[in-house]
Every structure is written in structure tokens, then in C-alpha cells.
Amino acid sequence: MVGATRRVTIIALLWSAAACSFSPAIPIDGDASVDRDAGPGATTRDTGVDGRRDGGSVGDAGEIDGGFRDGGSTETDGGFRDGGFVRDGGGVHDAGVDRDGGFVRDGGLRDGGFFRDGGFVRDGGPRDAGTSDAGLPPLVTSGLVVRYFLDEATSGTAASAIDTGRSPAFDLPRSGSSNGPFYTSSSAGVSASWNNAGSGGGYIAQVSQKILADLDNTRRLTLEVVVDLDDATSFGSRLVHIGTGSTTYLGLIIEDGSVTFPINGSSTIQWNIAVGSLSGPTVLTVVFDSTQSNINDRIDFYVNGSPGPTSQFGPAQNQSFDLSSNDDFVIGNRPNGSRSIEGEIGYVAIYDRRLTPQEVADNAAALLVSHDTR
Fold first, then answer.
1. In the Cβ-directed half-sphere of 190, how many Cα atoms lie within 13 Å?
2. pLDDT of residue 113 exceeding 50
């Protein structure tokens, strides 16, 4: 991976996987922060050649069961970069798939098998919010960075999770294990599924310039995920992970009793919520805006479009995210593996702005009808 010098910033609950010089997050009600284990071998970000990591190591060399990398050097079986994908600088493409104008999405799954680049413009920006090729409720597109419907096949597997956000597309190649991800159909749409919590497998690519340009150093963003949860590992199952092998700098983590929003690896915002309440398709939305003067307005958590539980901590004013070109973007796991959910992830989107409460509610209502491509 290519090193790069980035900034380091912080937030609320201390994350034991990273040891950087951050100022503490500001408690809302004065309670002590909760120290959470980020897994063995977690890297620190204050001693490496890029000023942020310890020599670029992804660590966690012992976690290779269905994992993505073996200590950051040996590509393991079931790993992300196992020769099936070509990493050619700008995009990641499966060697056997033609993603040019004639690529048929899935042979008739949607709208009679429309062509992704013929009749439906892939590279002209996000899809228009007022149209839907499947007659589904539209979704907000203003400020959209990436969007994954995770419905590239009705069953089995597909080479990549396709980004339908703004151009250029940032597709995520699949890295599979015996436990997933596999495509599963339900009344709300197709989802990527895993049959065992704490296993390997996911969708991954090294962060692109689009991700860095829109999300590095940002003070505003919105993260949306549709999840149908059966179980999560006690170490924290990753719904979305942007970071190093075991350290999440931006993403969403779930375990029994809480949903966590990490910021820069060492601090977290946490909401208490039971796993059982996330059974069935559930839209989780995090709206982050650290520019707000009132700490209570800097981060909001929604469940199915309605305000969810509140966190006892909030971000410091003007807190920003520190991302690096060394980071990986992963759906459903972390680069080191062993952090999947048991259940399904049906949709992931990130915006580079704060969605309004009405936009959050409208998106959630549309996604609960169907989280498939529109």
C-alpha cells in the first residue's frame, strides 16, 4: 500500500486498538468512557513512516481463519487479494467481468435486464432522486459519496459490490469464506448474508481518491446501513469499516447491547441497543456534524428513520476524520477478518453532508419498502 501523511483527530469512548495523541471526547452526562477491545495486534498510528501507523503493519497475524490477510504480508486462503482481482491503481475489477457499456447487470433481475451503462448513465453522477427503474421510492442523492445495494445476484455470489454513488465508481471486490458473504432474497430485497458471527468474508478495496477527497478531514457526514441481525461477536462485528487491519477509523460496529461509531480508531460514540431489536430489516443512520456549537447537535442516531437511543458522549467541536491512502474500505468485516455478523447487510451509503431529519425519515421509509437498486 502507498503511505501518506494524514492528520490525527479524536472523539469519545477510548478504543484500545489504537494509541494516538488525541484530546478526549466530551462527555454529555459526565459518565466515564468505556474501554473496548479492538482485537489482538491492533496497530498504533503515531510511530510509522507516514506519521500515523507503526510501519504500515496491519497486525493481527494470528487471525487468519477466513481472514483477509495474514499479518499484512501473506495472502491467506479466502483472503481479499487472492489473484482473482486486478488492482490497477484506479479501480478494482474482476478479471472475467466486463463492466463497460455492454455489461448486463444480472441477466434480467431488474427491469428486464437493463444495461448499467446503456440507458442508465453510470458515470454521470448519482441517480436522479425522482426516478426509479424498478418503480421503488426514490432515495436522497445530494451529497452522496458511495452507495451499495448489495443485490448483484439473487443468490450465490458476485464478483463485487457495485457502487452506484457519484462518479468515479468505487466497487468493492468480494472476498469469501465458507460463512459468506452470500446473496439472500427476502421480502425487502436482496442482501449479503453471513451464517456465523465472527467469521471471515466481506467486500473490500483500498480507499480511493474519491473516498479521501470527500471523507478525509470531513466534519460532516451521514452513514446509512440496512441490517437484519441474528448475532454479533462480542469483540464487535463490523457493518462498515474504513481503517487498518483491526482498527476502524470510520464505520459502524455492532455487538450485543450496543452500536458503536468509531472515530479515528481510539474514540467511539456508543448507543445501547439490543441485538434482538435489530432482527428483520432495520435502517441504522448516523448523522455527524461536529461544527455545531451545541454538543447534543453534533451526532444523531436513528433507527428506521426515528431518533434512537442517545449516547452519553459527543464529539468535540470541529472533530474531523483522519483517513489515509493505506486504509481499506470494508463492508461486513475488517481486513484481518473474524468480525462478521450472523445475519444480513442489505445496503450501505455514505453522504458527505448532514442529512436533515426529514431526509433520514424519507430514506428509511423507502429502504424499508425495498433496499434493492432503483
1. 21
2. no
